[in-house]
Each structure stands twice: as C-alpha cells, then as structure tokens.
Hints:
The chain is mainly beta. The protein contains three helices and 21 strands.
Amino acid sequence: MKKILVSTALLAGVLSYAGGFRVSLQGVKQLAMAHTSAHAEDASVAFFNPAGMSFIPSKLSIVAGGFGASNRITFQNRNTLQTTETDNPLGTPIYAAVTYRPLEKLTVGFSFTTPFGSTIEWPNDWEGKEMVQKLELKSYYFQPMVSYKFNDWLAFGASYIYAKGTVNWDRAVTQFGGQLNLDSDASGHGYGFGFYFRPDPKVDVSVAYRSPVDMKAKEGTATFKFPSTSIYPLLGLNSSGTDGFTATLPLVEEYTIGLTYKVTPKWLISADFNYHGWSRYNQLTLDFASAPLATGNPDPTVVVAPKNFRNAKTFRLGTQYAFSDMIYGRLGAYYDESPYSDDNFIPETPSFNTYVVTGGVGFKLKQFGVDIAGGYAMPQSRNVNNKTLGFYGQAKATAYYFGLGLSYNPF
C-alpha cells in the first residue's frame, strides 16, 4: 500500500510537467489584438508563421519584448468548505526575433520564445500537499527559419525547433512525514512550416503548423527527505534518498489559420483559429533507476499512468486603428478551451475554459516601434471531480497580463 501511495504522488507531479500549458505571449503587438497571427509588419511574425517573413516591408527587422503574467488559483473543498489560494510569483515570458532578406525572394530569420511554462505555489500544509506544494516549469524554443516568396501574393516558410526545458517540483509525503523533490532538465526537437497569402492588398491569410516536441528527460533526479533514513531501503533508494528517472514529456502540436482584413487604410480586423493536439497525452511512462514504485508491472521500476487529455480549440478576434502615422490603438478578445474535463483536473497545472479581453497601443518613430499591451482573463469555475487523485471541490482563477515590446526596422 505504501508503494502505491508514493507512486500516485510521483505521477501527479510529473504529469503536470508533461501537460504544462500553452502560454500565448509571443508578441506584444499580437497580444493587444487577441494574439492573432496574420500580421507581417516586423520580425514578430516569425514565431507565428515563418512564411510571413517574406512580407515584412523592411529588409532587416529586429524585435524583442517581455511580459508580466499574474494568476491566482482558489480551491474550495466540497465537504469541509475550506478555501485555499495559491501565492504564485509573477511570470515573465520573453521573446526576440530577427529577420533578414539577402535576396529578393529569400528571407532568413531566428526566433527565441518561451511558449510553455508556469510557476504555481500552494501553501506547504494545504490539503493537496501530497500532489503539489510548488511546481516550476520552464521551456525555451530556439527556431532558425527560412522563407521563400514565390510571387507577390504567396510565400512558404519552414523552421527547425530546438527546445530546452526544466522542472522543479516539491510535494509532501505525509505517510512518512517527509517531502519529495523532482528535478530534471529536458530537451527535444521539432519543426514548423506555413503558407502566407496576400491575394489582395487588403487581405492577409496565414496558415501554419507547429509540430509536437518530445522533451526527453534523461537524467532526472528524485530526492526524498524523511525523518529516518531507514525508510530509504523500503523504496529502493540509496543512502542519500535519491534515485534517477527518465521520461519523454510531450509538448503539443498546433494548427493555426489567421486572417487580417484592412477595412480602411487606417482600420484592420484580424481573426484566428487555433487547434491544439493535447490528445497525444494518453499516458506517461516513467522509468526509475531502482525505486520499485509500480505494482502489478513485470518491471516495478517502470510506472505507466493514464492521462485523458483531449484536443482543444481557441477562437481569437482583434482589431487595430491608426490614429495617425505614429499612434495605433488595438483591442481584442478570445476564448481558450481547457484540454481536460473536470474528472481529470489537476492542481499542478490548473486549466480552465477562459475568456480573455486584450488591448494596447503602439508608437512608431521612424525605424523604431514601441508597443504596450495588456490582457485580463476570466477563467470559468470548475467542479473538480478527480477520482484517481481523490480530489474534489470547486476551483476558480483570475489572471492578467501586460507586456512591452520594441521593434527596429532600419532598412
């Protein structure tokens, strides 16, 4: 029975790393317009669709920016009515990109982004402490890319993705009066490609695909801390209470269709549809070096956990109005589906069906641009009913974002 309880706790934590969540903060200008993608004014288009680089007016374009992301999760126990809130630090996603056109029809570029990650911190003594106390997830995408413009209205682009990631997770092991930390680096590879169309000067169409990335953790470390070291041999641990593990942790694929229409020379409207392939999380396999944490398996060091995620969609609508050649106003709204049902809710990476409103302003000073954006999220409350983890109640959340972006288009 002890082995089963420890195994369940481990799976809860590492499942959260595999699930993670998609952070839609890769362009300040884009965020202000609901994070829509069919905008080819500067190098920020590179992450969304490498083909869009061919339509950037400037031969050389450089962008960089960062965000502040704040969120708070509240959980109320269904039986005791006790309420617990997270104390999460401010998240700081960043991005940078550069594009250059050495030939009339050929453009090359590089994009750096942080599209997956979070930090969530619950009180150390809360009722779900065996699932999570603190979890910090980070991911970094490095994407060299190229785009070829076939004619005035069509371009194709492709990118290679090299991803790095880390996880650091603390949770309690109350049956032994101890604590567990999981720490691991991971890396993976993927690709992206897309088509960018401009059939009319008033219309931009972006069609893009970003592949899944299998993040392979080859040298993970599980560290147990107990009042007595006599417990370590019971779990197959060494004298310092540590064990190694390996796992493949998938990040999701994404399909995007975007459209921008210039209603007038000063006013444009943009819309996006995103489709996220979360259903590839049907299970997660953890291979420990020596700890026999699985029961019923031929190899007790290999733990397999079911995970019933489902594909999810996002609908986005944004607009921009040019008050002058120097000042631009932007607004947007979008709806983002959660990738799992109430029966599969996990407190490590809480996810909600969410409505978000966004806005911002942009300033253009000759070759330089400055963009400011903000967003307010309205997650829909959830009736948590996770029988596997024995986790029941109601979960609510609030979140907001703000960002500052810079661009430089010298020639």
